[in-house]
Structure formats: structure tokens, C-alpha cells
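Progress report, Aim 2. The chain analyzed during this reporting quarter is listed below.
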Amino acid sequence: MLKITSQTSIPDSEIQITPVRAPGPGGQNVNKVASAVHLRFDIANSSLPADLRQLLLERADRRISKDGVLVIKASQHRTQEKNRDAARERLAQFIRQATVIRKKRIATRPTRSSRQKRLDSKTRHGRTKALRGKVSD
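Predicted C-alpha cells for the chain:
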């Protein structure tokens, strides 16, 4: 059972973890040992609440396939167990991020004094640059 929040959790039967060979350098061992893992989680057919499933499926993330399967690849660690734990934690983090409702930004305008300060600094900077010109005889 993967615990997401105090109310939300995912049964292990819904998470499919497949060991794969890790890409990149690693000596002779890299071609023999499948230490990396691919975690697959079918969002559409999961036991998550319907509104949370909808939020996850609407996210623009390249890890989610067209049929609603989230694929997480983990190969940071040298052992398969640590990579499995890292992939499960990244899945939990992905779902937690979807539950956070972002505060809508309120557009603000600069004050009159801040606009004046900006213009004054531009004028001062322009004068400094003008003094760097060639000296006439």
C-alpha cells in the first residue's frame, strides 16, 4: 500500500514495477544486472477519487501516455530496491502535486514612484555611458 496523503493511498496491485537494464556507463555489470525500474500506474483505472483522477489526466506531462498510463523511470541508484523505492516516492510526489491548488495570481501595477525611480536610473546610466565616448580636442 502506497500512502499518498492521510486520506489517499494506492494498493500495490495497481502499481506495476518492471526491472530494466540501466542506460549509460557502468562497466561490465551494466549489461548483466537490471538495476533500473519502470513504474507503470494506470490513472484511468485506479482506485483514486474521480476528481483526483481527472486532475492527473488533465496534467500536461510527457510521462502520461494517451491511454492514461503514467510511466516513471528510476535509475539513479545502483540497486533495484532503491530504484523501486525512488520510483514509488516519485509517484506519490506526482499525485501530491496534483492535489495542491495553486493560488491565482493577482496582477499588480508598479507605483508612480517606482516608475520614476526606474526612469531616473536609466537617465543616470545613459549619462555615465555618454561620458565614456571619445574625447574631442
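The longest helix spans residues 80-99. The first strand starts at residue 2 and ends at 3. These observations will guide the mutagenesis work planned for the next reporting period.
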